[in-house]
Structure prediction request, 226 residues.
Amino acid sequence: EVQLQQSGPELRRPGSSVKLSCKASGYSITDYLMHWVKHRPEHGLEWIGWIDPEDGETKYAQKFQSKATLTADTSSNTAYMQLSSLTSEDTATYFCARFEPDYWGQGVMVTVSS
Amino acid sequence: DVVLTQTPVSLSVTLGDQASISCRSSQSLVYSDGNTYLKWYLQKPGQSPQLLIYEVSNRFSGVPDRFIGSGSGTDFTLKISRVEPEDLGVYYCFQATHDPLTFGSGTKLEIK
Prediction:
């Protein structure tokens, strides 16, 4: 059974960074792109980008080019997203997702507050 | 970037009635391979988005046949016949034809 297990909620100060994890089971992450999506109730869903874990190639939405860094560790079958220079605008739930066919992580809440 | 405009923003429907959501794209979503990579998702409160429809009109595994996707080019529609209580949430269209991938702004379905 395919599952994407994300790390737990995070509380960070403005200006700091956070690294989120997404551990895949039931398949090899090198077989599919891993996407990351941001959700804020008042803003809806936003696609952040994808990583090809097989070769590390990444693609970002321009808005997240300087905000997010996607990486993957094939030895642990885990994808990561680091968010830097956090502001209140980064307070959101972040999902990892595999497409074709679809599987989504449960989401992780990141709160940025002083 | 491709802009997906969803209408209406919110929808209040009586149980058993039909609901219809429109998704209009700022450019054609037909990819060079001839396929149209337009999906529909439902995000229920506190949950991850769940795929309903892919490539305009194909129901994902386990999705009831009450959900019908249609359209082509730049205009797409999701119809939900015989709305049930578990259908409440926010519906999003999503395109994967053009980089960057983009979501529509969402349509909130409420039950009267």
